[in-house]
Amino acid sequence: AHRREDLVRSLDIALARVDRPETVVCVAGEFKQGKSSLINALIGVSACPIDDDLATAAVTVVRYGPELEVLVRRHVGRDAVVDRVELDQLADYVTERGNPGNARGVEVVEIRVPNRLLERGWAFVDTPGIGGLNRAQAAAALGFLPVADALLFVTDSSAELAEHELAFLRRAHEVCPTVLVALSKIDLHGAWRRIEQADRTHLDAIGLSVEPLPVSSVLRAEALRTRDATLNDESGIPRLLEVLHEQVLGGARAGALRRAVADARSAIRQLDVPLQREQAAVRDPSRMGAEQAELRVIRDRLQLLRGPAARWSQRLGDGFSDLGSSVDYQLRGAMRSILRAAEERIDATDPGADWEALTTAVQAQVAEAVGATFDAIATGATALRDELATLVDDTAISASAGLAAGVDVEQLWSRRPIARSTVRASVGMGFGALRGAQSGVVMLGMLGSLFQLAVIGPALLGGAALFAGKSLVDERKRQVSTRRQEARTSLRQYVDDVQFEVGTRVRDMLRELQRALRDDVAGRIDELSRTNTEAAAALERALQQDQATRAARDQELGTELQALADLERRLKRLLLESAT
Q: What pTM does this model have?
């Protein structure tokens, strides 16, 4: 009605976010617990590859798309590559059997599916198994959780939750707002109710008040095939979907609602200000000059804010430059410390015997360092956003700007393998010792023929043994030294690759966040400028009105201002209701 198309566009976007907020659910658990099958069961489509001898080896994101599309994001050398593949080819990229040791360099796979559930905003992330004592896999999954709305932890009903699973859940609960536990494969294990009770006890013991949700992907698939509602209920999937809607989607919508209310209240203020100024002028024409003078001051200030030398614009550039330098220094320092500690461990041990444990520890530490880097970016960008809101004197910027949108699920760093090279205990030492013994026998045999002494026989054997022993020790030292050098080279290459890839991601993310914040602040300034222009135009109209017209206009303005005040009260009530 006020012809403010700019505000209409902002509110349309806010409504879309409330109607369909993207809700990210990270699905994690041990290997072969049925994570991929559960995602397929939830959406009712066979999107994730499943088989008895397949294990997920890459992060896979399943989200809505108007048509089926599979995108594989991977690295070839130092080049980022995106492959579009058929769904039946996916196992060649995301499973241990099809892509052993991640030889294809897959980072993340995105599957877009035309599905009604996903269309509501859901996105499910299938993660590699946390692998028992494999701290690196667990750390990689934990690093993803800060940008997820919920963790759905899958454990099968064959055994109670293990200690490392409980440790993972305890740490996950610290960084993720909502944690759910699915008890899978209840169709295979008749004693699942006893396991359910035991798991509930274990979860209570670590302070996690979560009810395990029994599910069967097999029963769900059969129910969908036969359209059997009773079997569908027995699968437990409807109950899990209900909990996801209540505990997860509700939270995501509440966040979108808070942001939408902030946008709506900002729009109301920008409609309210010109009306109030006009009402003051029509009621007391003597205030007209003062009102116009104040609007000119506001106009001049907004023009300065829109200029290239505006303080907020300079602070935006400087702030992101400082943030980039800070996180780069933090990441390099963390990587240097990790590498130094690993090399000290290499120098103190034989990498051939310690390689698996060493690389697992390094991968876990690197994953944690990368996660800390992205956390630092989010924290720094949020602080900068609040500072800009102060400089522009518009708290709506701080209340509504959503920086989390800059961290998309496809852009997350995933765990890379460390090259094995030849860092293994060698079987060549025995042959080196035999060569040493042979040399000793030949040399002492020459002495025997020279002195022609029968007593040389025992000495010959003893000397050969001495030479063999020394050769064995020397060969072992040489091979351990070689393995240490190869281990150091592999780790340095690994850390260098991670720093290169994460550095690229960090720069891209900072650039996207800076642009998003710049556009948001500039958009707010444009809206405020339009508001000021509307107020000035309203005062000009009031100047040319006679007393009777001003009186009638006063009544109209009172009605409009009352309607806006009613909207403001309804928005406040809506926020209170959503909070309770």
A: 0.58
